[in-house]
Amino acid sequence: MAGFVQLNNVSLMYSADATALALHRTSFEVGQGEFVAVVGPSGCGKSTLMKVVTGLWPATVGNVIVGNKPVSGPLNFVGMAFQNSSLLPWRTILQNVMLPLEIVEPHASRLRKERVAYEAKARDLLALVGLKGYEDKQPWQLSGGMQQRAQLCRALIHQPSLLMLDEPFGALDMFTREELWLALQDLWLARRPTVILVTHDLREAVFLADRVLVMCARPGRIILDRQVSNTRPRALSSTYNPESVALVQELRDQISAARANAAA
Description:
Blueprint: E1 5-13, E2 21-30, E3 35-39, H1 46-53, E4 61-66, E5 69-70, E6 78-82, H2 93-97, H3 107-110, H4 115-128, H5 144-156, E7 162-166, H6 174-191, E8 194-198, H7 202-208, E9 211-215, E10 222-227, H8 242-263
Parallel strand pairs: 3-8, 3-9, 6-7, 7-8
Antiparallel strand pairs: 1-2, 1-4, 4-5, 9-10
Helix pairs in contact: 5-6, 7-8
């Protein structure tokens, strides 16, 4: 069966200048309900890959298929979360979480009549990530980690088929990141969306993902695809078992070699 997300020999050039080649003959698949992490050296095109998959930037060469349909423009069934929470400061946490329901169909058409049910869904999501009782707070009243929890809820409230995460925990301290790994694992196990996570944290990739893809230095392409064998749900201690440590080291070695080759 073909993957839910498919990239077939995708290249992306930002301009006619060949030095602006960001992706080069990149191919991979992500199965429906699968959690895949993408790692690689800085500037290798990980964030560009996100834009191509979601239709925010058209491929120069090759094709992108999501949900058995060619991607020809921005997709409306994607949830996204970024390094900065981007919560709107004039809206409460509950109102921020419900924002996609005001924009994305068919929810936008139903929201007025079904607001009570939608609000209950938003409150359930917030409770799942430990934010019960914070629904009426403003973003500035929450810590950075709590804001990121709310952002994850906002990304999932409209039940997207595809969840794209671009360094969502990169600005947080290690202990907060680890707490959010557990929160994200709980959300994924409860909802099972297809997830593509871009991260620089190799422990994060191995803890959260079913598979880890390594990109080489720019122009980016996939040079390694590794399965993560740890069963779910995973405890934080699993990142220190021999299999996880060996995989993190293999990923680190691949990225170091990619950086060295780029500098040569």
